[in-house]
Amino acid sequence: MSSRHSSITVTNKIRNLVGRVTPCAPQPPSDLPNGAHGVTRPTQPLDDVSKSLCRHTSPAAGQIDALFDHFSRPGAPGVSVLVIRNGRVLFAKGYGLANLEEQLPCGLNTNFRLASVTKQFTAMAVMILTKLKKLSLDEPLAEFFPEFPEYGRQITVRHLLSHNSGLLDYEDLIPKATKIPVLDRDVLRLLLEQDRTYFPPGSKFRYSNSGYAVLAEIVEVRSGSTFAHFLKKSIFEPLQMNRKLAYEQGISVIPNRAYGYSPDGAGFKRADQSLTSSVLGDGGIYSSVADLYRWDQALYSTTLISRKMLDLAFSPATGTDHPGIGYGFGWYIGSHRGLKETWHSGNKIGFTTHLTRFPEKKLTVIVLTNRSEAKIVELVRILADSFLSDCR
Predict the structure, then answer these.
(1) Closest by CA position to 260, among listed 376, 389, 354, 350
(2) Which end of the chain is less congested by CB atoms within 10 angstroms, N or C?
(3) What is the C-alpha separation between 212 and 218, in angstroms, rounded?
(4) How many angstroms separate the CA atoms of 313 and 345, rounded?
(5) 19 sits in which H/E element
(6) DSSP element (H, E) containing 388
(7) pLDDT tens per residue, range 171-188
């Protein structure tokens, strides 16, 4: 499950370490390096604004390196970091290892499990089908699954997208003797066996992985293809996100794969898959920061869906557990420093991820790690504040 504290306190010690980070020189996305490490370098003349921001590139890169120092220690799972503004890459670098056993480094093309950052892609798949008039946001579950119990007649697609369906958490419904990884269709089967919800649908917010697993099944019903195939043909290929995929164990091969790890004493142990890791709709997509660049830029355009539908996705459909923060379709929505902020975090066994956007400044910070429970939200906030300071 993924959430965001309404306010984040960052210690003065860390803030003093980083200070105001001056961004690295802009670079076109096609020039994201294929190597494991390296800050982006300019390949074209800089405009006057960029020149004023980039007078001290090397010290700034060193400050960011210090921020992510604990990911670069020997034998440590790593992280990939990307900062984008106005379509230009201001900072991009990998730290640490994607594979401890083979000593393979993290880079810009390293594919991490996105965990709950996946939800924005599941929501996009649903919105694409809405655009194609293959479903309505206000259709109830019984329209897709006639065998669904009576309570499903009150739950709509819109409720699933905004986490106010009241569906029971599937993680709590899995039989204790289960050994085989659970799939989205298994989640649906578990819910078909229930006769209640936590609350009347639409009455309150409760973060729900169950809802997004059901959405993946709805995509299959109305598209006539597998969820993974629909994502590939309708989102990944049109955006040229060539290394991104919804991971199906035994079917998919993940190039440049980061394996997940958890702390173990003074070191780390591999913890890459769990009983729920094969559920795709709530957290099963793998991606690199290089491919997420393309995703981020597409969200400023109508390449995939209309502007009206995008506005709906980025508008609070419901409140959340945190004051002043709402949830749209696959995105948390709030404000920071007087600016609209949309984001999502992910935390699944072996992986912690965070993607935050400030659309008014066209600033995006992405941090992907292959370690459990990594404390990256504060790091994202420091980076965002530093670059926002340069946007004044």
Answers:
(1) 350
(2) C
(3) 10
(4) 16
(5) none
(6) helix 377-389
(7) 999 999 888 889 999 999
Question: What pLDDT is stored for residue 58 in this prediction?
Answer: 29
Beta pairing class for 326-327 and 318-319: antiparallel
Would you state the pLDDT for residue 15?
38
Q: Which residue has the tokens 């958490």?
A: 169
Neighbours of 264 (CB within 10 A): 10
Distance CA 357, CA 337 (A): 13
Count how many residues are written for the chain.
Answer: 392
DSSP 8-class letter at 236: I
Which residues sit opposite 319 in a β-bridge?
326
How many helices and strands (H and E) does the chain possess?
A: 12, 15
Beta bridge partners of 351: 348
Q: What is the pTM of this model?
A: 0.85
Question: Is there a contact between 310 and 303 (Cβ–Cβ < 8 Å)?
Answer: no
The pair of three-digit structure tokens given for residue 12, joined into one six-digit string: 């003065």
Question: Considering only CA atoms, which of 187, 173, 177, 249 is closest in space to residue 215?
Answer: 187
* Amino acid sitting at position 178: T
Which residues are CB-contacts of 150 (< 8 A; sequence separation ≥ 6)? 195
